[in-house]
């Protein structure tokens, strides 16, 4: 088995995938361990993976946090940043 079954999920989540999503895509725990050994995936949190071995980007860290704490969601300035807003006016100032 390869990661092609999870391509749609990886693309829609900035290269981040949870174990539960991997299982839904037809992968199993042996596949995930093999991808980790071969460095096709890297563990960000227990049960949450990114599709490269470099430092995760901010959007990837945000996805990883939401997937790790599922059912969670970004809120406030984190949610705005995830949608592309670069700065937010907070209490009369810009953050």
Mean pLDDT, all residues: 91
Figure out the total of helices. 5
How many domain units? Answer: 1
Widest sheet, order of strands: 1-3-2
Strand content: 5-15%
Helix content: 40-55%
Counting DSSP E segments of at least 2 residues, the number of strands comes to 5
SSE succession: HEHHEEHHEE
Radius of gyration: 15 Å
> What is the molecular shape?
elongated
CA(first)-CA(last) distance: 45 Å
Query: Poorly predicted ranges (pLDDT <50, ≥5 residues)?
Result: none
- Based on secondary structure, the structural category is alpha+beta
The main β sheet shows up as:
3 strands, antiparallel
Oligomer: single chain
Protein name: AbiEi antitoxin N-terminal domain-containing protein
Domain AbiEi antitoxin N-terminal: 8-50
Pfam families: AbiEi_4
InterPro entries: AbiEi_N (IPR025159)
State the gist of this model.
The chain is α+β, with helices and mostly antiparallel strands and 95 residues long. It has helices at 7-12, 19-24, 29-37, 58-68, 76-82; strands at 16-18, 42-45, 48-50, 89-90, 93-94. This is AbiEi antitoxin N-terminal domain-containing protein.
